[in-house]
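User: I'll paste a sequence; please echo it back and then give the predicted structure.

Assistant: Echoing your sequence first, then the prediction.
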Amino acid sequence: MGWSRQFIEKVRDATDLTTVAGDFGDTKNAGPGKVKLNCPLPNHNEKTPSCYVQKEFFKCFGCGEGGDIFKFIELVQNCDFNEAVKRLAMQHGGKSYDEHTLAQMICMSMIADKHAPKRLSLNRGLRVWG
């Protein structure tokens, strides 16, 4: 299943990574628009906060991981890009969507994007889908 670029950007714009990060650990203020927390990634246990988060991206200076909100969800919840988009749209994308509404949005997104040959793939790179 592919998501249209427009739908992905709507989810990204409606979601604040600092809020999402709070679901995975205690956050502490690290300056205007920034928070820090102990790295929530499963491969990194630590005692002091080394993961810095802003609205649009994160970086852990302990384990070296970083990326956007979709990458954060992929790593923390061990899922792929499409599942990360779905989870964020259902939980944090401005309002909650049930499975039926989300399925309708996916169909509408695919129809609207039918003539556009490119869809977003992992890590925001473009990949042509036949």
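The first strand starts at residue 28 and ends at 29. The chain is about 40% helix and 15% strand.
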